[in-house]
Amino acid sequence: MREATASPQQIYDMNHSTASPRSTEPAGSGLPDQPLPVVRSPMLDRDRQLFAYEVMFQRGAGDDAALMQRVLSTITDGALTRLVRGNRTFLTLSRELLLERTDVLLHQPRFGVVLSPAFADDEPLLERLRLLAQRGCLLLLDMGDTPPSGSARLEALLQIVQFVRLDASRLSPEELGARSRRLHERGLWVVAGQVDDHATYHRCLELPLHAIQGRYLLIPDEVEVPVLSANRLSILRLMRSLEERNPGPVELGDIIRDDAVLSYKLLSCVNSAYFALPRQLKSVQQAAIFFGVTRMRNWIYTMTLGGMDDRPPELLRAALIRAQMCEKLAEAESMPREQRELAFTAGLFSLLDTLMCAPMEFVLAQLPLVPEIREALVEQRGPYAELLEQICAWEAGELAGQQAQRIQRMAAIYLKATQWADQVYAHADPQPH
User: Fold this and answer.
1) In terms of Cα–Cα distance, which of 293, 363, 352 is closest to 320?
2) What is 230-428's CATH number?
3) What was the pLDDT predicted at 63?
4) Distance between CA atoms of 70 and 166, rounded to whole angstroms?
5) Exposed/middle/buried for 275, CB within 10 Å: 0-12, 13-18, 19+?
6) Pick from 1, 8, 19: nearest CA to 341
7) Within the chain, which residue ranges are assigned CATH 1.10.3210.10?
8) Alpha-carbon span 88 to 140, nearest angstrom
9) Considering the entire predicted model, what is its pTM?
10) Angle, CA 320 vertex, CA 279 and CA 199 arms, to 5°
């Protein structure tokens, strides 16, 4: 009798069933060993490279104080460091934790704390923050639209922080400019937050800001006449060829045979230690037989879009995260395998308009996609649209009324998808490491 062999999906699940950041509280703490309900929000510099992450809690997932304690435990065991890939990261912590449990931050120079202007009126807390600042802890004052002058206590807080964030959605362009210049002249690093449209983003580029944060990253810039660059046209031609021919494993290998870089990235990724395959795959044809043609076609899309060196890396990572989340949500809802793989495509293509700098209808007109994906991306209807709606709500922290169990399921899917996306992007990224 032939020995049973695990499927590629079973191999993946077995090797990554505990890959997400989890609480490691001691026995008796009353805190379950569950994935942390957090989302990482990037702040980008003027060159659209990552400046820092902000790790934000998903409200409604349980007791906030308990969640914050679990976050500190994941800093200690290194899980949160892996989530943010060792980059500069800011967290919002409660007053109690700042007074009693922040020693862990003194041993983690890349982690910092987001502060409220209200802390200026809390003398014991202010003294603790002075000590943290003296010992090198990163402090970001989230000023919002609070005037930066006129309060002696607020001035004391400004003297100990290194970073200040202004709310671009609540300040006029003139006031945002004036405040950012004053803070910059003081030697503070200024971040514009809540930048949720491209008009505001372009104004921010003219100001002395060190970083910009907001939803602008995930929405397409408005263009009067869509014009696709040669690189983007080449990508769309490859995608169209993959969709039109409905290739088998041999045909799939033939389509990308002449693209040595793409083939190398593809095989390098699937053969990496992360996926722990039972044997090395030596050709795209072998990989298509092993994984299936539809999944392999999705991998080709992933590698191709991941290689767009003219788009912000965090935007590309966001597309990969959406793709993996969409597939895993489809799996959680017991959709058949073919529908799960189409869900991956829908998630990946949900940012195709932003990646291509063109309207979604224009981009999809170049691709003969199945009607269900087109309906989800253009008309926002159908089963894949419902999955994307859940993902967008997770990204925005709009989870009001959802049950804690559902939020925990989303947390597990998000954290694994983030780890997966970071691993895949490391192979797709055209820049040297």
Assistant:
1) 352
2) 1.10.3210.10
3) 67
4) 28
5) middle
6) 8
7) 230-428
8) 12
9) 0.89
10) 160
Neighbouring CB atoms inside 10 A of 316's CB total 23
Cα separation, 399 vs 227, whole angstroms: 37
Contact in structure between 93 and 80 (CB atoms under 8 Å):
no
Tracing tokens 């990572």 back to the chain, one arrives at 317
CATH superfamily of 20-218: EAL domain (3.20.20.450)
d(CA 397, CA 416): 18
Residue type, 31: L
Q: What is the pLDDT of residue 153?
A: 84
Q: Which amino acid is at 286?
A: Q
Q: Give the CB-side neighbour count of residue 159, counting CA atoms within 13 A.
A: 11
Of 366, 351, 342, 425, nearest in space to 239 by CA: 366
Q: Where in the chain is the domain with CATH 3.20.20.450?
A: 20-218
- CB-based contact 369:341 (threshold 8 Å): no
Structure tokens, 296: 């392999």
d(CA 242, CA 300): 9
Mean pLDDT by 10 residues, the chain (433 residues): 46 44 41 76 97 88 72 84 94 89 84 94 93 94 88 90 98 97 96 97 97 96 82 90 85 85 90 86 91 90 87 95 97 93 96 94 91 95 96 89 84 94 86 53
Return all residues near 88 (Cβ < 8 A) that are at least 6 apart: 51, 52, 53, 110, 112, 138
